[in-house]
Specification:
Radius of gyration: 69 Å
Number of helices: 5
Oligomer: single chain
Structural class: mainly alpha
Distance between the termini: 165 Å
Order of helices and strands: HHHHH
Helix content: over 70%
Largest sheet: none
Shape: rod-shaped
Length: about 200
């Protein structure tokens, strides 16, 4: 086989194929000591090993690389999705906090308004209760004053009667006694109208 290839190779270089330029070039392969049988067997062995490596190793490795690349891309996509979800959650949280703050402010302002209204109502109620107590105290004082006047009149009447009895023992005439008695009764009767 090597002789056939060698002959073909020699034919290329000696112009047998019709290439005069190649005829001028000398065949370099014999100078390098190329053994065609070894070269072909090593080429076949290389192709078999390359095929085995391609079939069982490179495809497996390439599949693993593709899987890892896909996993990395999925992880990056999941990371981006998680980041977007986190931003959405953060925005929702801020919005909820803002609404809660607004509601709290509204509750506080409502509570302050209610407290002010309740304070005003209590102030009015206290004023009314104070006025009512003052009116009752005045009425009680007026009633006490009237009772005291009545008691005083009774005591005065008793004193007048006692005085009259003493005067009666004094040898007054009946006319003097009647006149003194009527003056005292008239004075007692006129006393409440003067005050």
């Amino acid at each position: 086989m090597s002789t056939w290839f060698m002959q073909a190779g020699n034919g290329l270089f000696n112009g047998a194929a019709g290439f005069p330029l190649l005829a001028a070039i000398e065949n370099p392969l014999p100078k390098f000591g190329v053994n065609w049988a070894d070269f072909i067997s090593q080429s076949v062995a290389f192709l078999i090993i390359a095929w085995i490596l391609n079939k069982f190793v490179f495809k497996t490795v390439m599949k693993m690389v593709a899987d890892r690349r896909r996993e990395a891309e999925d992880a990056a996509a999941n990371n981006d999705r998680a980041r977007r979800e986190l931003q959405a959650v953060e925005e929702t949280r801020k919005e909820v906090l803002h609404k809660a703050h607004e509601q709290a402010e509204q509750f506080v302002s409502t509570a302050k308004a209610n407290a002010a209204e309740l304070l005003e109502q209590e102030k009015i109620r206290c004023e009314l209760a104070g006025n009512e107590m003052l009116a009752k105290a005045r009425e009680d004082a007026r009633l006490d004053q009237a009772r005291l006047k009545t008691e005083l009149k009774a005591e005065l009447a008793t004193m007048i009667v006692s005085l009259t009895a003493k005067l009666a023992q004094m040898n007054l005439t009946a006319a003097d006694r009647d006149r003194l008695l009527q003056a005292a009764v008239k004075e007692i009767a006129d006393e409440p109208s003067q005050k």
